[in-house]
Amino acid sequence: MSVNAIPMDEDDEIDTIKEYIGKGATHNVKLSLLSDIVKIMGVASRRGLFEANEMSFAGRVHDEVRGMVVMALDKARSELNAKKLETIEEEAEEETGEAEVTEGVKVLDITEEDSETIPVSDSTGVQSS
To answer: Which one, of 78, 68, 77, 73, lies nearest residue 34 by Cα?
Structure first.
């Protein structure tokens, strides 16, 4: 099946993409790519590449992409913790013959400093640590 491309200007193309996305279209993207996009946006804002009337849009996109990355990392961390806890419980059961459930055990001790690889900036584009 071939699709004939209709030439469009950039604004029409952006509107078409927004309409497509608005209908619930999704696509899998690597977290590393999203993280790189956030970093590029931070560099671009520090270098003054956005005009004043573009700042809120750029900031909104930055925050949304960064939020997706952080949410995915949190989910992955929770899944790893659950798997690690399950392994610990299985090993304890093999050793003692009883399953031990330990509530509140922090399986992975990952600090924000260890896991934070995405720069955070406020609405003015000023980066903080």
So the answer is: 68
CA dist., res. 39 & res. 109, Å (int): 26
CB distance 72 to 29 below 8 Å = no
Could you write out the three-class secondary structure of 64-114?
A: HHHHHHHHHHHHHHHHHHHHHHHHHHHHHHHHHCCCCCCCCCCCCCCCHHH
Residue (of 29, 119, 111, 35) closest to 69 by Cα position: 35
Structure tokens at 51: 């005009």
Residue labelled with tokens 């949304």: 64
Question: What Rg value do the Cα atoms of the chain yield, rounded?
Answer: 22
In this predicted structure, the answer to whether residue 103 has a pLDDT above a threshold of 80 is: no
Question: Between 28 and 80, where is the model more confident?
Answer: 80
Per-domain residue ranges of the chain: 27-97
What pTM was computed for the model?
0.49
| Residue 39: both structure tokens together | 């970093």
pLDDT tens, position by position, 49-62: 988 888 888 999 99
Q: In this structure, is the dihedral angle defined by the CA atoms of residues 32, 12, 18 and 120, taken in order, positive or negative?
A: positive
